[in-house]
Amino acid sequence: MKKQKTKRALNIRDYATFIFFILLLLVLSVFAKGFLSVTNIINVLRQVSIIGIVSVGMTMVILTGGIDLSVGSVIGTSATLTAYLMVHAGLDMSVAILAGLCAGALVGFLNGLLITKIDIPPLITTLATMTGCRGVAYIITKGIPIYGFPAGFSLIGQGYIWIIPVPVIIMAIVFVLGYFVLNRSVFGMHCYGIGGNQEAAKLCGIKVGKRLCTVYTLSGLLAGFAGVVLLSRINTGTATVGTSYEMEVITAVVLGGVSISGGEGHLRGVIIGVLIMGVLTNGLIILSVSEYYQWIIRCFVLLLAVGFDRNAAKLSNRKEKLAS
Known about the structure:
The structure is a single chain. The protein is built from 13 helices and two strands. By secondary structure, the chain is an all-alpha fold. It is globular and about 65 Å long. Strand 1 and strand 2 form a beta hairpin.
């Protein structure tokens, strides 16, 4: 009975997100000229691909009851390191990309160790590594943009397969893999269990510390991967790349119905949340809304998403208590 009620509450969240997405599309299709053109739709998908890739790792983190504020800076660190190794160190493109991915995974692993072994709260841990990684990006570049990448590198972020941008295909593959990990594996079941009740998960024999380290490592790895894709797309390595991406990713995940308290949510909702962020940003740009106002709007969207999540959870708990 309890599982059925929880599932019903989750469905309400999913439907609410989907309805908001449809309404947003309708409004922008009326007021934003050219919004529904094929070219613009493809452009929106390409724009959200970076957020989409990172959101899979963030979903896993939030499902366990944690948070990862370092993903934006990890994007910057991985991007600048990859750029530096290709241009200034003269390393092969594949080796430089691998180094960028390893850097992201290493930061994620460090986050996991600090959280599980030293018992530093995820918010503080990832806030610290967010600051540190941004500093590393500035040290790597020395404040000077890096450019002049090898031929073929741009295909990762700017290439097409038919009319579909390569970053969109990468995002789709990451979502499919993330879906199978969360819904068809023991690891995914453990993520939900840890987020639902960490103490109960320990009593059930789940190695919570090991799982959390893995989750944060995956989050860092995907952020590093997104950094490489973004570097290829903009074709310049700067220390500011990835700035504020963490807030967009968190907003997309929470908008998608993943409970900020952990233990509840699905990637199918996160996909809608990612699309909402992309469509909203694109629509505001077409409507010539100032970037400063866009920041304020994103602030309200995040607050509304978290507020809706918290109130939905309270309502669900109240109904369960009355039923029992």
